[in-house]
Amino acid sequence: SGHVYGYHLKNRQIDWDFITGSDMDGTPVVTSDSCLLVTLEKQYIPGKGGVMKLNPRKSPDSSCVEWFLPVGNAVVAEWKGGIIGSASVNDHTRPEGYPHIAAVNTLDSLLYIIDYKNTQPYKVLGPDSSTWYPKPVILDSVLIGPSISTPLIVGNRIITAGYWGIYLFEYSPEGRLKRLDAQPFGCEATPVVHENKVYIGSRNGYLYCFGN
User: Fold this and answer.
1) Does residue 177 lie in a domain region?
2) What is the pLDDT of residues 132-161, one digit of tens each?
3) Which domain holds residue 53?
4) Are 17 and 64 in contact (CB under 8 A)?
5) How many domains does the structure of the chain reveal?
6) Phi and psi for 156 in degrees, rounded to 5?
7) What confidence tens digit (pLDDT) does each residue in 113-135 have?
8) Is residue 11 part of a domain?
9) Is residue 38 within 8 Å of 51, Cβ to Cβ?
10) Is residue 176 in a domain?
């Protein structure tokens, strides 16, 4: 376990293999600069879980890690911390003048908004607790409760959910979050948007639809 594989479609073989050492439940996300965002659990690694940006054009070792964002530990069900869902990016619906952002929900109750193209001038320990990596620029974070769901970004709005409820946020050109609405029912699912309506399944057995 703990591998990010690159599969060559023409040769039909694995020709890239980066080892994170961590269990990964989320789906790798491709960014506009042709990199991958992968999310990591805490449970089976000495360091912290979080989200990592990988450049598959580089060798599958520490040199391919563009940055790593470690997140806090938190015991939720069988998990020990990190990020269970996937990262989300705004590349396809990004308003003009807004940054390229990634959003993640964490088990320690935070929604992070990250400028995924820029890093801070210092490094953090990686999931192996021995390798140092650059840290991305965090534009904002807000308390939403423990979450294994994936945030959904549409334009300058973010819909996200967790065990405390479902939330609607607006983010500014500076990446600052403003809460617009919330509904207090627990969710593990990821929301979807169709024809200006938000759909999400809840742990209470209901499928909800929110509209204008």
Assistant:
1) no
2) 999 999 999 999 999 999 999 999 999 999
3) 3-153
4) no
5) 1
6) -105, 25
7) 999 999 999 999 999 999 999 99
8) yes
9) yes
10) no
